[in-house]
């Protein structure tokens, strides 16, 4: 499948093409190894040695290829016409503003699950390297990450800002885990000094729990630094957090529950707000009347009615004391994450000036690729476009409906259909930005051949 791809259609992103070329090369290297294997086996006079080589063929090589096989079709299904290509390119550009991350790129896989997932390196790269080691083949390139995206989200921009969180898992694993794990270790040491000795197994359990929870907070904060509050709005939509508005603390309790792999959602929104205040975004969004902002308002104070559902809990460690460790590390991330993510400094100032103008364009169904600010021509940057678009959707969408003859502002069907149009217009604006500012160097083929439909909106 990887070797028979046409050059003209379907079109894939450069990271996906790189992944397909690697799979094809590793497959050919495996074939050469398999062709030579019978002769190698026949050279052994001792039947036991021959049997060992046959076991190597059956177990490591076959099982490793079975593991890789499950990702090939989902990756081939994720061509540029079935992905929000211009958003993905914008996220890559934003990531590469940090010099240390310029070699990091992501290939995307389709999934039928209604969620996003970053494949850890041991699920693809390490498996491929096992094959390469056995057949004398090429090692997998460090810096190529893999993200699963719901196949239903091909034309979206708002919910797909969740992709920035999945990129955060990759950054955490390759770049930040050592620093964060050191901070977790110091928090656990302070706890042990306070409550008394724990055995090694109990300390490892506490560190693993904290590691799982804190990694999610790191990725949330990374995403906010990368794309602004749009990530928090998308996450609120994904988990249905609007049910928190106006409820007493602790209801509904699902949002207050820590599980093995994830922290309680209310603590995530609390940390979102703290970071948004730290980097200046909160001042710009705090007076919005929409549900995602009200969720952040409701999570201003740390939640107290939290529960932890974990088996084999250390008797010496109280839930409250472990959550204190969690809060200490999360507080450190509010300072740490903005230090390692470059390029977000001008986003808030530009948003403040440009978002009202972008809203005027959108309410008239004009793609805001080029706007006039104070008599000057401006091409809004992607983070500004994404957040201004989200503000328009949440706060001013009725203005668009009112400007279109025959549309009913209170109709769910009208709002759903025009929301999809709005997302396409914004994707077109992201694509235009790369063309207008000369940022197409690595994605020009994708940008020109994998255009998103503009659905009748005009570019200005």
Biggest sheet details: 3 strands, mixed
Order of helices and strands: HHHEEHEHHHEHHHEHHEEEHHHE
Q: Span from first to last CA?
A: 41 Å
Query: Uncertain spans, ≥5 residues at pLDDT below 50?
Result: 440-456
Strand content: 5-15%
SS element count, helices: 15
Structural class: mainly alpha
Helix content: 55-70%
Overall pLDDT confidence:
88
Q: What kind of oligomer do you see? A: single chain
Q: What is the rounded Rg?
A: 25 Å
Which descriptor suits the 3D outline?
Answer: globular
How is the topology of this model organized?
Layout: H1 14-43, H2 47-77, H3 85-95, E1 105-111, E2 117-118, H4 125-135, E3 144-150, H5 163-195, H6 200-227, H7 230-239, E4 257-258, H8 265-279, H9 282-285, H10 291-298, E5 307-308, H11 319-340, H12 347-362, E6 366-367, E7 371-373, E8 376-378, H13 382-402, H14 412-436, H15 444-449, E9 458-459
Parallel strand pairs: 1-3, 4-5, 6-9
Antiparallel strand pairs: 2-3, 7-8
Describe the structure.
This protein has helices at 14-43, 47-77, 85-95, 125-135, 163-195, 200-227, 230-239, 265-279, 282-285, 291-298, 319-340, 347-362, 382-402, 412-436, 444-449, and strands spanning 105-111, 117-118, 144-150, 257-258, 307-308, 366-367, 371-373, 376-378, 458-459. It has 15 helices and nine strands. The protein has 460 residues and is mainly alpha-helical. It has a three-stranded mixed sheet with strand order 1-3-2. It folds into three domains: 14-77 and 105-142, no CATH class; 163-340, no CATH class; 347-459, no CATH class. It is 59% helix and 7% strand.
């Amino acid at each position: 499948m990887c070797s028979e791809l046409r050059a003209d259609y379907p079109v894939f992103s450069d990271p996906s093409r790189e992944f397909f070329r690697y799979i094809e090369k590793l497959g050919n290297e495996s074939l050469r190894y398999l062709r030579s294997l019978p002769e190698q086996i026949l050279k052994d006079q001792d039947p036991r040695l021959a049997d060992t080589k046959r076991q190597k063929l059956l177990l490591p090589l076959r099982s490793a290829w079975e593991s890789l096989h499950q990702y090939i079709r989902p990756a081939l299904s994720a061509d540029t016409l079935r992905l929000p290509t211009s958003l993905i390119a914008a996220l890559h550009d934003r990531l590469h503003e940090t010099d240390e991350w310029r070699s990091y790129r992501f290939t995307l896989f389709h999934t039928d699950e209604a969620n996003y997932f970053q494949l850890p390196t041991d699920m693809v790269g390490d498996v491929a390297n096992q094959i390469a080691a056995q057949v004398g083949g090429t090692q997998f390139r460090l810096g190529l990450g893999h993200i699963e995206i719901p196949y239903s989200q091909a034309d979206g921009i708002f919910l797909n800002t969740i992709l920035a969180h999945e990129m955060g898992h990759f950054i955490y694993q390759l770049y930040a885990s050592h620093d964060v794990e050191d901070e977790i270790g110091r928090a656990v040491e302070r706890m042990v000094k306070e409550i008394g000795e724990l055995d090694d197994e109990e300390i490892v359990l506490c560190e693993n729990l904290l590691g799982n929870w804190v990694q999610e907070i790191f990725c949330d904060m990374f995403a906010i630094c990368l794309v602004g509050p749009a990530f928090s709005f998308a996450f609120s939509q994904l988990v249905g957090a609007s049910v928190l508005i106006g409820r007493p603390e602790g209801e509904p309790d699902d949002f207050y529950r820590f599980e093995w792999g994830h922290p309680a959602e209310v603590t995530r929104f609390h940390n979102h707000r703290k970071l948004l205040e730290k980097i200046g975004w909160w001042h710009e969004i705090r007076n919005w009347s929409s549900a995602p902002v009200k969720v952040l308002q409701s999570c201003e104070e740390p939640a107290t009615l939290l529960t932890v559902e974990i088996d084999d809990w250390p008797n010496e460690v109280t839930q409250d004391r472990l959550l204190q460790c969690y809060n200490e590390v999360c507080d450190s991330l509010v300072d740490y994450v903005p230090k390692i993510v470059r390029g977000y400094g001008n986003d808030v100032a530009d948003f403040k000036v440009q978002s009202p103008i972008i809203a005027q364009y959108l309410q008239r169904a004009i793609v805001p690729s080029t706007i006039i600010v104070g008599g000057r021509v401006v091409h809004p940057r992607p983070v500004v476009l994404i957040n201004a678009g989200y503000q328009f959707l949440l706060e001013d969408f009725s203005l668009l409906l009112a400007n279109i003859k025959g549309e009913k502002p209170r109709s769910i069907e009208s709002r759903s259909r025009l929301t999809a149009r709005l997302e396409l217009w914004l994707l077109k604006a992201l694509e235009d930005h790369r063309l207008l500012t000369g940022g197409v160097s690595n994605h020009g083929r994708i940008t020109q051949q994998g255009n998103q439909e503009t659905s009748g909106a005009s570019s200005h």
